[in-house]
Each structure stands twice: as structure tokens, then as C-alpha cells.
Amino acid sequence: MTKYNLLDKINSPDDLKKLDIKFLNKLAKQMRSFLITNVADTGGHLGSNLGVVELTIALHYVFNSPIDKIIWDVGHQSYIHKILTGRKNKFKSLRKFRGLSGFPKSHESEHDCFNAGHSSTSISAALGFCIARDLNQDDYKIIAIIGDGSMTGGLSYEALNNSSKKNIIIILNDNHMSICENVGGIAKYLNELRTQPIYINTKQDINNFLNKIPVVGKNIKRLIEKAKGSIKYLIYSNTIFEQLGFNYIGPLDGHNIKKLIEVFKSAQKLSGPILIHVKTTKGKGYSCAENFPAKFHGTEAFNIKTGLPINKSKQSYSQVFGKAILDLASKNKKIIAITAAMTDGTGLNYLFNKYPDRVIDVGIAESHAVTFAAGIAKNNFIPVIAIYSSFLQRAYDQILHDVCMQNLHVIFAIDRAGIVGADGETHHGLFDISYLTHMPNMILMAPKNKLELINMLEFAIEKYNSGPIAIRYPRGAAQEILLEYNQEILIGHPEIISRGENLVLIFLGSMGQEILQVYDKLKANNLNPGLINARFAKPVSQDFINILREYNYIFIAEENIKSGGFAQSVINKFLELEIYKNNIFSFALPDEFVEQGTRDELLSLYKLDVQNIYEFVLKIILK
Ligand SMILES: Cc1ncc(C[n+]2csc(CCOP(=O)(O)OP(=O)(O)O)c2C)c(N)n1
User: Fold this and answer.
1) Confidence (pLDDT) at 229
2) How far is the CA of 179 from the centre of ligand 1 (A)?
3) Catalytic residue of the set 32, 82, 95, 394
4) Cα 554 to middle of ligand 1, angstroms
5) How many Cα atoms within 13 Å fall on the side-chain side of residue 565?
6) What pLDDT was estimated at residue 203?
7) Which residue puts its alpha carbon closest to atom 19 of ligand 1?
8) Greatest pairwise CA separation for the chain in angstroms
9) Which residue of 112, 240, 246, 400 sits 20 to 30 Å from the alpha carbon of 510, by its own alpha carbon?
């Protein structure tokens, strides 16, 4: 008998349903152990998954997936769901190249009915499923599971506002944590609700209640019938969800499987929009994760006994940014930093620890963060938004309409720009050059190393105050290449590292590490290439173009998709100047969604690694 004797028997929700309810707590224990052992090896979103073990078991015990639809918000907490739906044998490959995804993926399983990765989408998606079900006159349940952190995202309220009369079940998984402590009025409100006694308020219950009233005279009962709304007020405090038309049930203990099953079974019989408020503990059952929930929200491989990471990590760009912004903000009181629920991830924790009032966490609300920053900038303060590239996608119109159109001095520190690795297609930052460089007034820079990031930040805050300005830098270790090259930053001007002749290699930001090696290999092959650090994805200056005119072959490398990327901006600039130039070659990601994998694996998949670039350059120039 293995230590997973119950779990071993479960390869589908049907297997789970065969288990007697009295074994489910034991199963939960085995699942926790399985999860901790596996995630300690692969890394992943441990805390959130430990928190939903009982909730997910109860969901699959009661509902009938894949006929009933279970829709996860963000999807980082879907590991238990994956284990229960036939994927436990793939957990060794979790988040690895060509392995199991850390998020719901329809191509993996019919039980993953809607893909996610970004927050606050589940209720909207579920409502879409409801419309389709109802038009088809089908009859099954649609359940959206959303965390309290994700409820700080505006999209979820747009969806709640649109839920009236739909047969939808929303499960609010409330662990009072986003990645860090959840923030704002909604978090405060939910905290108050969490401490209330359980409260089941459905129309059906009110009727039951009325029927049970002893006969005190028909008139009184009629009077009460008339005043159902006010009775609710008298008997129960009224929640915001009820006011939006939901039947509210909660708060429930999210680790009590029996109770969860009972309530889910009752909810199955009800109609109309239902919100079940479930209290859970992030990291439940693993003390390191319970004590340090932010650290174990998403973790690298770690030692189970100590909770410490197995690999020592080098200083990251986020840390370099975090220390630099602290330094600048200590000297300039006008600087206000903004984060959308990523204080630690972006490195703003350094500033927050010293000056908590100078970092504003707006919750998972990227669109709001940007317009909020625009308001701050309009009043002559200096807002710095630190944000991941893929999450900034959420705020396209706010950048365009509220910031760029008014040409406001808002600074965007765009972290995780480029390949991010294990989180995969939803999280790669491969679009920001494309979505920012076509916006009038926007300036976009990318540093080649840590020192240049510090200089660019200082330039953006202290020297450039004519409008919006952004710096993109990748996930992971801050580069230390070419530290001896430290020319002054001038708008639109590249840094010429070596003039060379005939061919020139141009890199933007993170691709410096590969291109420098290609350059060395070409030199070793008795060639004399030029080497240029582009620095600016926008603007591309006429001076830059004049320099490039001298070369017969131009190779441009960037960590962005080709479409709308930096190389295309260079080509456009040539066209704008009516200079017709052949032989411009682009090294960039193709027009497709890039799967999960390490940066090295993905660069070689797309022939963007040193050897492939080198061979391509040789092939072209020796043709
Ligand atoms: C649009 C967007 N912004 C930021 C994130 C990063 N992120 C992932 S999970 C998370 C916190 C979610 O909190 P909650 O919904 O309460 O889930 P929990 O992990 O606490 O279960 C954040 C901020 C994201 N996935 N999507």
C-alpha cells in the first residue's frame, strides 16, 4: 500500500464519487502531501492550491464535470482539479517545456472548459456559458470560482452587474490574501462578512421561514409577506451580493468537506444567481506556506523541511528597479509608486518598507492604475507604475486615451517583458513593444544591463518630463554584460559599442546577452561586425537611421513578437525617410502564442539562440 492509497484510485471525478464521504478528509490529506512533494520539485503556485483542496474535492464530488462547467479564475489554483481529472501522473512535468500547464488549458482536458492566467475573467466567461446553455435549452450547472484578490478587478463587477436572473453559481474563495495581503474597501468588506455567522439567504428560505411562523393572525402574515424585503433586513444583514440580485450563502468553512458538499447539493437545487462565500486558508496544511503566504503564492523549487529555495537566485531586474526607485524617491518627494497587487513581484517592497505611503496598491486593477496615475501626473506629481508586461495589456485604452493623448508624464516600469518561462503563454511579455510604440507621445526604452536600468529610470523620472515614458526589462537575473559601456542617455539615440563594417548587429535590451556572443563568434571568425545597443524602441531617430545606412546588412534582435516590433519600426523609419534599404533581418518571436518553457528552450525552439543566430548571419553575409 502506498502512502497515496486513496489518491492512487482516482483518475476521474467518477472515481471520486465512488468514495464514501467519510474517506474524503483522508483523501484531502494525501492530495496535500502529493502537492507539496511535487511542487517542491517543479515550483508552482503552492499556497493557493493548498487552500482549495477540500473545496475542489467537494465541487467534483457534487457537480458533474465536464457536463457541469467549472470555471477557474486566474487558474493558478487548478492543480487539485487537474489531479482529480486524470492528470496526476503528469505532475512531474508541471510548468515544464511541453509539460502540464500550471493553468487550465482546454487542449489538456475536457474538464478545463475555459483557459485563464489573468485575473477576474471567470464570472464573465461563466455568464457567456450560461447564455449559450439557455439558448440551447440545456440543463447543467455553471460554476465560477473566484478569489477575493481577483474580486478587486473591475471586470468581475461588470460581470456581477450583468448576472441578473442567470442560473449561475459563483464560489467566492476568500482567503483574505491576494498575492500579498488583499487591499481596499472590498477586502475590508469581505473581512467583515467573514466574521459573521453563517447566513443562508435565498428566496426559498424566506418562504420557508414565513410558513413556519406560528399562526398569529392571517393579517400579520400577509403584512409580513408584503414586506419580504424589509424582513430580510430585519432578520439578516443584507450583503452587497444580494443587492445585486444574488442568493448569498456563507461564509462557510472552506476546509469542512462535509458542510461544503451539503451546501453545494442545496445550491444545485436552487435557481437564479447564487454566490457561495467560502473561507479558506492560503497554504493550508504546510506551515511554511501558511506562515509566508506571499512567498509560497508562486514558488521556485524548495526544500520541504526548511521552505527555502533550492537554487540561489541572482539579483533580479525587479530588485534592481526596487532599490533604484527607493533611492530616487528618497530624494524626490514627488515620486509616487503604483502597483496592481504586485508589490513584492515588482520590487516595490523596498520602497514600501521604508515609505509605505509612497506605494499605492490598487488591487488587481491595471486599467484603474493607469488612469489613476494620469490623474496624479496631471497634478504635477510623478507617478511610476511598476507592472508586468502581460498585465499592462489590460490597460491599453487607459494608456492611449488617458495618458498619451494628454501627453502626461507617467513612468511605466514594465517588468517581465520578454519570455517569462514556466507560466507560459498567458504571462509572456511579448507584446508591449507592439502595443506601445504605435501610441503617439510614448517613449519606450530597454536596458542592456542592471546599470542601464538604473540610469534609464533616473532619466525617465528626473531628466525627461515631456510625456509618457516606459522602460521594459525581463524576468530574472539582471544582466551584467557591457558594464564598461555607459554612454549618456539621449532620446532616440542608440549606444554604439563597435562601428565595424559591412554588417551590424543591433540588440534591444535583453537580447544583448545573445547578440554579444554572436558578435564574439563573428569576430573570432575574422569578421568585423558593428554592434549597437538600440536602447530606444521608440523613437527611432533619424541619426540612428543615418548610421544604419552605412551597412550592407542589418540584423535586429528583440524579445517581442515580430509583428509591430522594433525591427518593423526601424523599417518604417527608413520608409518614412524614403530610403529604400534591403537586407534588414529581424530576430524576434513569431506571430503566435508562445508556450511554456525556459527562456533557453524557447529561444532555441524559435532559432533565436546564439548558435542559430550566428549561423543565420553567416549564411546571409556569405551568400
Ligand atoms: C490581470 C492580472 N493581474 C495580476 C495577476 C497576478 N496574480 C496572479 S494570482 C494573483 C492574486 C489572486 O488572488 P486571489 O484571487 O485571492 O487568489 P488566491 O491566490 O489568493 O487564491 C495575482 C495578483 C494576474 N494573474 N492577472
Assistant:
1) 43
2) 6
3) 394
4) 42
5) 26
6) 52
7) 48
8) 105
9) 400
Q: How far is the CA of 117 from the centre of ligand 1 (A)?
A: 9
Annotated catalytic, 394? yes
Q: What are phi and psi of 177, to 5 degrees?
A: -125, 140
Q: 315 with 477: CB under 8 angstroms?
A: yes
Amino acid (1-letter code) at residue 557 = A
Q: Between β-strands 274-279 and 169-174, what pairing exists: parallel, antiparallel or unpaired?
A: parallel
Q: Helix 203-212 to helix 218-226 angle, to the nearest 10 degrees?
A: 170
- As a whole number of angstroms, the distance between CA 318 and CA 322 comes to 6
pLDDT tens profile 430-481? 999 999 999 999 999 999 999 999 999 999 999 999 999 999 999 999 999 9
Known catalytic membership, residue 312:
no
Q: Indicate the top mutation candidate among 39, 45, 364 to test ligand 1's pocket, ranked by most ligand atoms within 8 A of CB.
A: 364
Per-residue pLDDT, 208: 55
Helices 610-621 and 512-524 cross at an angle (nearest 10°) of 50
- Please classify residue 536 by burial: count the beta carbons closer than 10 Å to its beta carbon, then call 0-12 exposed, 13-18 middle and 19+ buried: buried
Task: Show the cell assigned to 398.
Answer: 487607459
Alpha helix (H) ranges present in 21-52?
A: 24-42, 46-51
C-alpha cell read off for 562: 515580430
Q: Tell me what pLDDT residue 210 has.
A: 41
Q: Where are the beta strands (DSSP E) in 485-583?
A: 495-498, 503-507, 530-533, 536-538, 553-561
Of the residues 119, 194, 368, which should be mutated to test ligand 1's pocket, given the most ligand atoms within 8 Å of the CB?
A: 119
| Separation between Cα atoms, residue 367 and residue 389, nearest integer Å | 13
Q: For the ranges 151-155, 217-221, 504-508, which has the lowest average pLDDT?
A: 217-221
d(CA 285, CA 287): 6
CB within 6 Å of ligand 1 — which residues? 48, 51, 74, 76-77, 118-119, 147-150, 173, 175, 177-179, 282, 297, 340-341, 364, 366, 391, 394
Q: Which helix (H) or strand (E) holds 174?
A: strand 169-174
With cell 487539485, the residue in question is: 80
In whole angstroms, what is the distance from residue 354 CA to residue 20 CA?
54
Q: Which of 54, 87, 366, 514 is catalytic?
A: 366
| C-alpha Rg value of the chain to the nearest Å | 27
Question: Which of 150, 173, 370, 398 to mutate for ligand 1's pocket (most ligand atoms within 8 Å of CB)?
Answer: 150
Phi first, then psi: give them for residue 604, nearest 5 degrees. -75, -30
282 given a catalytic annotation: yes
Distance 66 CA to ligand 1 centre (A): 25
Q: What does the pLDDT look like over 299-357, one tens digit per residue?
A: 999 999 999 999 998 999 999 999 999 999 999 999 999 999 999 999 999 999 999 99
Ligand 1, atom 21: nearest CA belongs to which residue?
A: 48
Tell me the helix, strand and coil percentages in the chain, rounded to 5: 45, 15, 40
Closest ligand 1 atom to Cα of 179: 11
- The whole-number pLDDT of residue 281 equals 97
CA of 120 to the centre of ligand 1 (A): 8
Model pLDDT for residues 206-248, shown as the tens digit of each residue: 455 444 434 333 443 444 444 444 434 334 458 899 999 999 9
